[in-house]
Amino acid sequence: MRSIQALRNSTSDVWIGIDIAKYAVQYAAKKTQGIFLVANAHTIPLADASCDCILSVFSPYDEKELYRVLKP
Fold first, then answer.
1. How far, in Å, CA of 62 to CA of 40, rounded?
2. Are the C-beta atoms of 43 and 24 separated by less than 8 Å?
3. pTM score, whole prediction
């Protein structure tokens, strides 16, 4: 598992997934490469303008929150 400092120093692409279900996050972390967080889409724990792309599959979301983390 990567540390937060390693992510800050990285120049490569990083996939980040969030889910409100702890067990879904644990399963995804075991099966794929990436960073997975237990969180909801109404308060995404990422910095402003930090994402190149956002994909939401079958989950409610807050449009303003998505625009906050999405790069211009």
1. 10
2. no
3. 0.70
pLDDT at position 1? 46
Q: 31 in helix, strand or coil? A: helix
Longest dimension (CA), the chain: 33
Q: Where are the domains of the chain?
A: 4-69
Q: Report the alpha-carbon distance of residue 72 to residue 67 in Å, rounded.
A: 8
Distance (Å, whole) CA 9 – CA 71: 19
The mean pLDDT of the chain is: 84
User: Which residues are within 8 A (CB) of 1 and not within 5 positions of it... i.e. 6 or more apart?
Assistant: 29
Residue 3, pLDDT above cutoff 60: no
d(CA 72, CA 35): 23
* pLDDT score of 66 more than 90: yes
List the one residue out of 61, 3, 68, 67 whose CA is nearest residue 35. Answer: 3
